[in-house]
């Protein structure tokens, strides 16, 4: 399974974010909420997450769930278009 997966790392201080570039591509760092989003190769996510959890400045690590979400919205749009057509007919009558 090729591709990249996001990992969210919550840390204790803003200064600790600069150490995360060793583990993957740092895409976003929130200075206010003290977390960063890293993208890793899909085969490395479990091993790198375990390594990150062992670091003293890391509070916890979450894996991104975007890959697990359904991305086929065709049925939802068809239902919406059908409902609006029915409403338009009833208001015209």
TrEMBL record:
Keywords: Cytoplasm. This is Uncharacterized protein YlbG (UPF0298 family). It comes from Lactovum miscens. The lineage of its organism: Bacteria, Bacillati, Bacillota, Bacilli, Lactobacillales.
């Amino acid at each position: 399974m090729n591709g990249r997966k996001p990992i969210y790392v919550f840390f204790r201080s803003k200064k600790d974010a600069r150490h995360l570039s060793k583990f993957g591509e740092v895409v976003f760092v929130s200075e206010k909420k003290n977390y960063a989003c890293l993208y890793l190769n899909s085969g490395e996510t479990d091993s790198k997450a375990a390594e990150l959890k062992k670091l003293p400045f890391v509070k916890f690590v979450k894996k991104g769930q975007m890959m697990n979400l359904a991305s086929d919205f065709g049925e939802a749009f068809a239902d919406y278009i059908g409902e609006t057509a029915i409403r338009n007919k009833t208001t015209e009558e």
